Structure formats: structure tokens, C-alpha cells
Amino acid sequence: xxxxxxxxxxxxxxxxxxxxxxxxxxxxxxxxxxxxxxxxxxxxxxxxxxxxxxxxxxxxxxxxxxxxxxxxxxxxxxxxxxxxxxxxxxxxxxxxxxxxxxxxxxxxxxxxxxxxxxxxxxxxxxxxxxxxxxxxxxxxxxxxxxxxxxxxxxxxxxxxxxxxxxxxxxxxxxxxxxxxxxxxxxxxxxxxxxxxxxxxxxxxxxxxxxxxxxxxxxxxxxxxxxxxxxxxxxxxxxxxxxxxxxxxxxxxxxxxxxxxxxxxxxxxxxxxxxxxxxxxxxxxxxxxxxxxxxxxxxxxxxxx
Length: 304
Hints:
Elements: H1 2-6, H2 27-52, H3 56-69, H4 74-86, H5 90-103, H6 108-120, H7 137-149, H8 153-161, H9 167-187, H10 201-215, H11 218-231, H12 236-248, H13 252-263, H14 270-286, H15 290-302
């Protein structure tokens, strides 16, 4: 399920925090690149720290300095969009969110953030369709999925009609139909449709945790992730959610423990793996373990 496979992207996306990945011929260029990378990382972590303690102005200033160094870094644009939104600067938030989705139109969480910002302004995506790569098929699939998760079934169906027929469109159309039938039965106080498949409990928990991540309710996330792990101790996303929550409430050592344990349960999910690395880098940086933090940042940059 595409929505679930992208849930771990919440917020961070695929983090790229350095410039050139290719070896430089001149030693002086190597030194310059390393210095540039260190400054970028320091600024980015500072922005996350300031955002976490609600110093949004300082977080924005740090992110803008990051953007001066890497003008097309979509992760920076997305963080700016979220921070502007929290600071109630919705026009600037919209511009940053659009820049992020232009660079990465297939990223579900970038689109989710953009939609939230539009809704806060009493608007929707139709107003800016010509300003983003709206015709990207993955973007449209993400949009249909988001509308479905928000129970906006009419909008989801409308987007589906604008997509090529595929396994995704057929499955989502069937789920929309089942959801509408279930709602109708509940409204009319009729017995439930026996053919409706019961929601997968793991899927339900992942959705609940994803909402908490999006809302940045990390205290509740910490509690709910703990409960999820008690029931499903081999599900890596629950370790990720637990580690993220611990990082945000300054329990970084515990975050390292849960994230390290969770790594062992990841099977063929590169996106989730990359986001584990992001949180591990963040935890080690907060603990003053720069070497370990840079090791994980290197894994993110190299996609390994």
C-alpha cells in the first residue's frame, strides 16, 4: 500500500545533507567541501532543535542559511514549510511547500504538508495546480490516497478518474466503495456488510502513529508506540516511531536503543531504513557523539 510505504517519510523525506558526492581532484576542494558540509549539518540540526523548543524564528533563520548553501534541497524546503506553518506564516509556508513538491513530486509527505497549508488558508490544490507538477502520476496517486485517508471519498474518486487504470486505482476504488457502504450502514443503523474486510490491526496502528507524527504530538506518540511494540515486537515502523518520539522529548540515549533494535527487523524497505539513519544521526548528535552522527549521515548521503 503506497500510503503506508511512505508513512515513514513524515516528516523528513530522504535527507541529503552534503554537496558533491564525487571525489575532488584538488585537496583544497576536498577541505572546502568538508567544511561546507559540516556547517550545513550544524545549521540543520540547530534548526531542528529550535523548532523542537518552539523557537520558530530562529529555526527559520537557520533553515534559510541552509537554503543559501543548497538552494534546491527539498528537505530544507519541506522543513521550512512546516516551520512557517507552525509560525502562522502561511503564505511563506505555501511557497516553501511548493518548492519541495516541485523537486520531489512523488513524495507523499511533501504533498500532505502542502494540502494542510492550503486547507489552513481555506483553499485547496486546485488553486495552484498549474504551479506544481500536478500531472505526475505518483503525485496523483498520493493525492487520491490522502483524500481517502481523510475520508474525503468524493475528492479521492475524482482524482482516480484522472489516472490511468491500474492495480492501484482498482484497489482504491474498491476500498472507497466499501467505506461508503459501511458509512451508509452505520448511518442507517443497519447490520454491517459481512463482505467488508476488517481493517488490519497493524495497518490501523501505523495510521494512528502517522497522524501523531504529523501533528507532532510526541508525548502521545511515545506512549502509543510503546503499546504497539508490546503487541507487535517485530514491526520496524513501531521502533521508528518510538525512537522519533524519544528524540523529540530529549531522551536520546533511549532513542538510540530502540532505533538500533528496530534496524534488525527492516526487510527491503530502503525509505524506512534511511529514516532510521536520520533519527540515529539526530540522537547521536544530541548526545555529542559526532563521529557516530556523521557515520549515519554518510549512510543517508550514499543511500547505503
